[in-house]
């Protein structure tokens, strides 16, 4: 929660706030996000306007996730911008009427309010973080992913390949091996059976 009392209600008043806060749980998306309790560096500009406080800011934080192609852990830096209007509670009626004029706008914009001159940045931070994250994070722009035959990470081994010939050869060797084994297994047994019968 951030306090706006020092800002005052005179429209045009400005205040800059820099603060480091621990990241809440689940700040991010499934494949990448800010680790819980990691330091989130916030730089905010609070501007007093007629109906409330306009908050403009940036958030910086470490990101951890995994490459969607090769599953390698990766680290990035979050740099998210946001801007949000927090209305005074007594601006409620005015805000509602204005929003009711336009149904589409009403659906998109959910009004946030100051509570006892404080505002909660968390929902705004969450939205900003999710919007700034790559939906498909990769360890490197041209990550070749994993080998579809054996699952090896191709970025570690650029020359990695399986020749079609190799696979067939391996298959033939496998077949030849089992035939030989079969013959070896059968031969002594039939000999033994024969000698016992005699
Ligand atoms: Zn990768
Ligand atoms: Zn392979």
Automatic annotation (TrEMBL):
Record-linked InterPro entries: YceD
Region annotation Disordered: where it falls in the sequence: 173-198
Segments of skewed composition (Basic and acidic residues): 181-198
One Pfam family cited in the UniProt record for this chain: YceD
Listed name of the protein: DUF177 domain-containing protein
């Amino acid at each position: 929660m951030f306090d706006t009392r020092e800002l005052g209600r005179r429209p045009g008043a400005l205040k800059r706030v820099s603060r480091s806060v621990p990241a809440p749980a689940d700040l991010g998306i499934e494949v990448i996000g800010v680790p819980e309790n990691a330091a989130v560096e916030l730089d905010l500009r609070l501007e007093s306007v007629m109906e409330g406080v306009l908050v403009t800011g940036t958030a910086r934080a470490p990101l951890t996730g995994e490459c969607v192609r090769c599953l390698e852990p990766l680290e990035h830096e979050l740099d998210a911008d946001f801007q949000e209007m927090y209305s005074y509670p007594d601006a409620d009626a005015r805000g509602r009427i204005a929003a009711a004029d336009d149904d589409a706008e009403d659906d998109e914009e959910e009004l946030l309010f100051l509570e006892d001159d404080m505002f909660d940045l968390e929902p705004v931070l969450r939205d900003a973080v999710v919007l700034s994250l790559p939906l498909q994070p990769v360890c490197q722009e041209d990550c070749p992913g994993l080998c579809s035959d054996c699952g090896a990470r191709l970025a570690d081994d650029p020359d990695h390949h399986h020749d079609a010939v190799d696979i067939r050869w391996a298959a033939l060797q496998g077949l030849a091996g089992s035939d030989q084994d079969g013959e070896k297994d059968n031969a002594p047994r039939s000999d033994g059976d024969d000698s016992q019968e005699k």
